[in-house]
Structure formats: structure tokens, C-alpha cells
Amino acid sequence: MKTEMRSKRFERLRQRDINKEVFVSEMPELGLIVMDSPGDPKPSLEIRDGRITEMDGRAEAEFDAIDRFIAKHGINLTHAPDAMAMGSLEIARMLVDIHVPQRRVMQVFSGLTPAMIAEVMSHLNVVEMMMAMQKMRQRKRPYDQAHVTNWKENPALVAADAAEAGLRGFAEGETTVRVARMAPFSALALLVGAQVGRPGMMTQISCEEALNLRLAMKGLATYAETLSVYGTIPSFLDGDDTPWSKGILASAYASRGIKSRFTSGSGSEALMGYGMGFSMLYLEIRCLLMVKGAGSQGVQNGSISCIALPESLPNGVRGVMAENLVAAALGLEVASGNDAMSSHSQMRKTAKLMLQMLPGTDFVTSGHSVMPRKDNLFGGGNFDAEDMDDWLVIQRDMQVDTGLKPVREAEVLAVRRHAAKAIQAVFREMDFPAITEAEVEAATTAFSSDDMPDRESIADLAAADAFLDSDLTALDVVAALARAGFEDVAENVLEMQRQRVLGDYLHTSAVFDEDFNVQSAVNTPNDYRGPGTGYRVEGKVWDDIRALPQAIDPHALVEDEAPDPGLDLAPIGPAAAGDGAEVVVALGPAFASVMNKTLAGLSHAEVLRAILDGIAAEGVAWRVVKVWHGADLADIGLSGARLCGSGIGIGLQSKGTALIHKKGLAPLNNLELLSMAPNLTLDSYFALGRNAACYATGRAPAPVPMKVDNMARLRLIVHTTLLHHREVRQIDKARSVEEMKVTFR
Amino acid sequence: MTDDPDRPFRYPLGQHHRDEIATKSGRPLKDLDLDRILSGQVGPDDVSVSAETLELQAAFARKAGYGEVAENLLSAAEMTRIPSTEILEIYEAMRPGRSTYYQLLSLSQRIASMYQAEHTGAYIREAAEAYRDTGLLKMDED
Q1: B49 closest CB neighbour out of A247, A257, A518
Q2: Residue A508: which of B14, B69, B90 has the nearest Cβ?
Q3: Which of residues 501-520 of A touch B (CB under 8 A)?
Q4: Rounded to whole angstroms, how far apart are CA atoms A536 and A78?
Q5: For an engineered disulfide with A440, which of A67, A167, A420, A428 has Cβ 3.0 to 4.6 Å away?
């Protein structure tokens, strides 16, 4: 029987995280195609007597309800004739051309049909989409949204996590519920906690549409993003809505001074069984034109919870970026996804994130979990509490800003505790089931809800029901906070209510800064026009981003300069050429005089003694010299070799790197090199001495074994730089190589 | 609160006109303070946005190039006059398969006349026609 040959490398690849994913080829008839489906219509537009009579190859009489809504509300008839007369390639180039202002591109997009927009996107690669996003994002500064939930639905923990989210700089926080009836308490805890961590952080709860609206009307939520729309009618009906019912909600929220955005995203229609042969992007563009037509200021899109579906297909990540870009080009605020788990592979997740993080979107994620994954009730966050530092380092690496800044442990603990105490006080004042001191303390320091005491959930649910049905509103929460001595939090929750009266944050891309100043596309529009314009990471923001708590003063990495007390090296005059079977050990200029340890922490005395012992073990004589004219290892070693009777020299830098060199060889062509100074032991140095003695006496030893540790360089490169700098500072070009008298103490 | 052409309103209102803004109940926004809340002098309508303020915001949106947002804010201005329970009922009636054509038409008329909500009324009427033409009405009676 013939056995199939198998590669051990392929075997290993099959086990990699990336190969836990499902990849499929396109299947357009089910809508399993991201862009450019053969079923997508060709762009067309006919306007008669001020109304659209044909759109993308479909006559008015054949319009479905979505076509009808878009034709009525989503396309600007003033700009449409000129915009549709342009070539799709020309429009694609306008997107990336820094000489075409954002507003001009928005004007063109306002007159395009869904199929035309899809065609424009098909001309762009992802880098061009990122360029375009940098220009088309509506608000000048990008921000991020937090997800705040926990498995036990403990209100003290929700409040503490919300406060931490605020402190970290999240401009918005969203919660949701495992048990729907807990919604009033989770919304309340989020509101109170957020105002502790960052005054002006907006909060919302994702729950059933009508309940959501009720909670918002009570003042327990300040924005909403649950208004889901779909690109085909059967999907819409499964969602139990129509474009018009969603549209009325947009106005309803605004009428109560509540900001709202819609939700849509690639793949939802196919997943619900109604992709109907269209590409995911084409259907998403239909959604976006509905969103715009409904007068919503923005959308969360980027496939959201369906992300794994486009990612199973070719150019799925590109298509998802295209939908973010289309939303921005239509003048909508974009919360750009990156919230639902998108991959098993960290590399793939990060790569996808870069498309939104680098150009910046209004909200880089539509939910970045501040808790560990198991507490994320949104179905597992793509980025969670444990990824926070990675995120901050990437901001520092790339000089990009998503509104998040490094925080210190002590300040996090302080705001968490204050938030837990505040919600405890609210519960007490409002006669809700008590939050115990133990809960407050646990919420302050918790990693996850595992660290929280259990609550009586039946009592909580009954109280939450009663709260929902009562006339109590956020004003009662304000009063409770003030009565209990939390005037600071009360004032912030109250200011949030005042902002509902002012309505400034109903505008496109609006958020508040920490001082409740609104930042929207109206007063802080993105004015990117190429290098030197638009949002730049500078000033205090950059100072915050680069000051990672983990970043230390490089001076602290190495001890002060000091000679080695165990070794006395006394110059006894210029080194002369020797003769016979000897080995010359040549030391770097800082050796034992201003430095005393190698990168491996071995003292200079120990290292030199090991080498000399190794030479002596083979019965060979040695001399020790110090090289002053340079610090390069090859130069040091070769300088020794040239003076040596046998022509064999050992070069030893003060940081511990060593080699064996031979007279007549090119500088970089040595006999043996111990390059991994951090991993060297006294045995390695002894073996190096012995081998040098063997070369000096015409024998060929086995090279000294070396453990290769590729991470050592990563860990120690800063130390290496600092230590080597000390060696370099001791260089004295005019001083010749000197013979040294060696005394061990 | 009138829009004085010599001193037009500037966005954001919270920064430039905080002292001139009144709540839906007509009270000055600056009355909304902790003392008055603690003494029970503030009701829900005192923390609601007024139609006038939303109209101002609509004008800002339009001027900034966000025409659709402006339209939405104008509808919202009308809807400040509609009680919350009624808003929830309108939403329910407009969900798919909930209403007949005539139910939607009569809802449209009632909302428009009872709350001086022309915009909203027209929108419901438009939905009625769209639902009739595309099969989204309540099935059994139509």
C-alpha cells in the first residue's frame, strides 16, 4: 500500500490558529460574495419631474420598499445628474486625491446610486481606502467605544468597569444584558460609573428597540445604536422593521434629546438567508443610503457581528473597509466594527484592525471590551481587557490616536472604587436591593465577575421591573447621588441631562471631551488635505500616548559606572609583539575600569579568569592587553591577534561579547564568535580560552556550543546599547594597545 | 428665544448660549441645578429639549451640509409635542404587518392635527403608500 507523503511543516501549519477558521470560495447565488457579484445591478439613474423613475436598472414600478425609501430620501436630486455622469474611476480617484476637499467628495456621493457606489469601491485597494478614510472621516479626532458588561450582571462591577473605561479615554460606553429584565439596572450602573471615570462619556444599552427607547426617555441612556437596517426586504421583515419604522425611531430619539446611530453590516442578509444573489457590499450600500435618508447622523458598520462571514470569503476584509468608507463618504459618523470576534489568529485580527485604526474612524471599534472576554455579553469581544496594553503600545509605535491613553493602576483603582461606592449609594437611596461593602471592594480590584459575590437575582429583577415601570428618572438618580454626598457624580449626571436639553450632541459624529465640550463634525470637522493638515497626534495627546507606565528612564536600566573591585588591571607599557605558542586576550577600553559586569551579569573578574584558566588548561601561555583605539569586537580581537606570537587573539568586550581572531584574517572573518553575551556562562568563556589555546598550538577544536535565543536581543537591546555606549566613551584614539598586569583580588 | 439677525445663534449652544436656552417646559436651563432637584422642583419636562432648540439645531445641521440630519431634527422638533407612550404606539403601528392602509392614514391625520406635526404626519402617510405598494400592510383586513 502506498502511503501518502506528508510534510511535517504542513502538519504544523494545520495546527495554527489561522487554520481553525473556515475559508470558502464564493457562492454568489446565496450572497456569499463580498464585492462585485454577477447578480449586482449596473448603475443607472433616471429622473423625471423631480422624482427618480429608474434606479440601477429597475423601473419605479418594480421598486421594493428599500429602493423606494432610497429614491425618496437617500439620493440628492440636485447633485445626482452630474455625479452619475462622472466615471466611477474618476470618483474613486477623487477619494484619494488630497487636492479634492472632503466636502466636494461628499457632494458627489450624495448623488450616487447604490450600484454606482459599489462600482467606485471596486476600483480601490485597501491602502487607497485608508487614504480616503483619513480624509472622509467626519470628526477631526478619532475616538473609541467601550463595551461594559459582566456575566453576573453585577451593577457595582458594571459601574467600576464603566469608570475605568472613562478614565482610559473611551468617549462612549455600551452595555447589554443577558437577562433582558436587568436592562434598567445595567443602564443605570453604566451611566453613573461612566460619569465618575470621564465626565461626558456617553452611554447606551443594547436591548429590544422599544425598551431601549423607554430607558433613553428616562434619561438612563444618552445615545442609541440599536437601529438595525438590512439590505433586502425579507431580512428587514425578520428584524421586524421597515425603513420607515426605523426612520421614525431616529426622530423619536432626537425628540428626547438622545443621539442615535443605525447599525448595518456586510453579511447579515446572507446569514439570514436572504442575500438574494447580491454582493454583501452592494446590500450594505443600500443600508447606508437608507440610514442617510432617515436622517441619522451615523452608523455602526463593518459587518459587526457577522464579520466571520465576509472573512471566510476572498477580499472580505477589504469589502468591510469599503463599507466603512462608503458610510464616511456619505457624511455619516462611523463606528467601524472591530467589535465581534473576527479571528482565531492574533496576527489576522491586528491586520484587519489596522485598516480602521491607522486612518482613524469616528469610533475605531464599535465596542472594545474593558472586561475579560468571558464577561463580554456581546458574544465575545474582538479586543478585550487583556489586549489593552498591546493597543496602547501600537498607538505609541505608530503615533496614532484612538482617544485612549495609558493609565496608572492607582488611578484606576481610585475611580473604580468611587464608581462602585456611587452606585451603592444610588441603590441605597432609591431602595433597590443593597450593594454590599464586599461587592464594592471586589468590584474595585476584580479581574472578572468570578471575583464578585453573587447577588439575589430574583430581588434584583423585581426591583428593576419596578424601576422601569415607575416614574423615576435620571433626575431621581441625580438627587440620590447628591443626598449621599456624591455631588461630583451628581453634577456630571445632571450635566448629561442638561446636554439633552441643549441638543448639541445630536449632530454628526458628536462626542464630549472630558470637560463636556462637544466635538462634532459641525464644530470640529475633519479638515484633512494631505500632509501637515487634519488631525495630528501632537502636544498633550502625544505626551500621554508616549508616556507608557511601562516605559522607564533608560538611566535606570544599568548601574552606575564603577570599576570591578575583584580585578586590578595595571598598564605596564605599550604591548609588544610576542613569540611562541601564546594567546593574547585583548580587552575593550571600559573593561574592569568603568564597567564591571557583562550582559549576563557575570563580573569582569570571573569572565577573565575563566578565559585565562581555559588557556592555561591546555598548557599555553597568555598575555592580557587593553585596546584603547576602538570598541569594535573584531578590531579588539584582531589587535590582540596581531601582537600574538601564535597569531591567535581573543577579543572581549566589556558587555561580554567575545571572539577568537587570527592574524591575517579579514576583520569580520573570525575563528569563533560568542555573540549572545546575555546567554554566556563561565563555562562558555573557559571553553573559549581552551579553544584559543588549541588554535595557537595547531589543533582544531570543536567550536564552543552556543544557545541561540532570538528573544534575548529583543529583551536586552536597550541594555546593550547603553552598555556599549560606555565602552565607546572610553575610546582614546591616540593611545596604543597596552600590556596589562592582571591581579585578581 | 428669537433668532436675532444681528446676533445669530452659534453652535454649540452649550458654549455660546447656555443662558438663553429654555427647556421644553419653558424654564431656563440654568434653573436645572442640584438644589432645585433635591427640593423636588424639577420635573421630567424640565429636562426635555424644546422644539425651538431642535429647530435651531436643524438649522446648524443644514448650514454644515447635513440636510438629511436637519430634516430629521425638524421631525424631532414636532415629536417633542407627542407623549412618549404615543411615540411608542406610532413606532409599533409602523412595524411591518401591524397596520392596515387606513389605520396608517388615520394615524397620520391624527398625529398631524393633534400635535401640529405635518412632517411626521406626511412621513406616516408616505409609509402607508409604500407599505400598500410593496406588501408590508397588515394582511387579514386588507
Answers
A1: A257
A2: B69
A3: 501-504, 506-508, 516-518, 520
A4: 35
A5: A420
Q: Which of A639, A630, A694, A633 is nearest to A658 (CA)?
A: A633
User: Per CATH, the architecture of B82-142 is what?
Assistant: Orthogonal Bundle (1.10)
Dihedral over Cα of A427, A429, A433, A436: its sign: positive
A505 has pLDDT over 50? yes
In 3D, which of A631, A481, A531, A642 has the Cα closest to residue A576?
A642
- pLDDT, tens digit, 9 for 90 and up, residues A582-609: 999 999 999 999 999 999 999 999 999 9
Predicted pLDDT of residue A23: 97
Cα–Cα distances (Å) from A109 to A94, A113, A370, A427, A622, in that order, read 11, 9, 36, 50, 81
Asked whether the bond before A155 is cis by omega within 30 degrees of 0, the reply is: no
A174 is an active site residue: yes
Q: What pLDDT score does A708 carry?
A: 80
- A-B contacts (CB, under 8 Å): 209
- The DSSP annotation for A384-396 comes to -GGGHHHHHHHHH
**Distance (Å) from the alpha carbon of B27 to chain A's nearest alpha carbon:** 11
For residue B141, what pLDDT is reported?
52
pLDDT digits (tens, 9 = 90+) for A29-45: 999 999 999 999 999 99
Q: Domain A28-136+222-333 falls in which CATH fold?
A: TIM Barrel (3.20.20)
Closest CA to A449 of A178, A81, A74: A178
* Contact between A590 and A730 (Cβ < 8 Å): yes
At residue A26, what are phi and psi to the nearest 5 degrees? -70, 150
Closest alpha carbon within chain A to B92: A245
Least CB-CB distance to A248: which of B23, B33, B91? B91
Report the alpha-carbon distance of residue A274 to residue A96 in Å, rounded.
Answer: 34
Cα A223 to chain centroid, rounded: 24
Helix (H) or strand (E) holding A582, with range, is strand A582-587
Sign of the CA dihedral with A289 first, then A295, A297, and A299 last: negative
Q: Which fold has domain A139-221+367-527?
A: TIM Barrel (3.20.20)
Was domain A557-744 assigned CATH 3.30.70.100? no
Instruction: Sort out which chain B residues have CB atoms less than 8 A from A522's CB and list them.
Output: 11-12, 60-61, 64, 66
Q: Does residue A465 carry a catalytic annotation?
A: no
> Which among A686, A684, A722 has a CA at the least distance from the CA of A595?
A722
What integer pLDDT is reported at residue B142 of this predicted model? 44
CA dist., res. A95 & res. A324, Å (int): 13
The Cβ-side half-sphere exposure at B75, using a 13 Å CA radius, reads 24
Contacts of A358 (CB under 8 A, 6+ apart): A130, A398, A400
Strand partners, A174: A147, A204
Instruction: Decide if A28-136+222-333 and A139-221+367-527 have a common fold.
Output: yes
Say yes or no for a CB contact (<8 Å) between B123 and A248. Answer: yes
- This complex has an ipTM of 0.96
A78 in reach of chain B (CB within 8 A): no
Q: Which of A65, A295, A502 sits opposite B53 (nearest CB)?
A: A502
**Total Cβ atoms within 10 A of residue A447:** 11
**Distance between CA atoms of A247 and B91, rounded to whole angstroms?**
9
CB contact under 8 A, A498 and B29: yes
Angle at A357 between CA A541 and CA A539, to 5 degrees: 15
Collect all residues of chain A within an 8 Å Cβ-Cβ radius of residue B23. Answer: 501
* Per-domain residue ranges of chain A: 28-136+222-333, 139-221+367-527, 557-744
Answer yes or no: is pLDDT of A4 > 60: yes
Residues B72-82 pLDDT 10s: 999 999 999 99
Active site residue A499: no
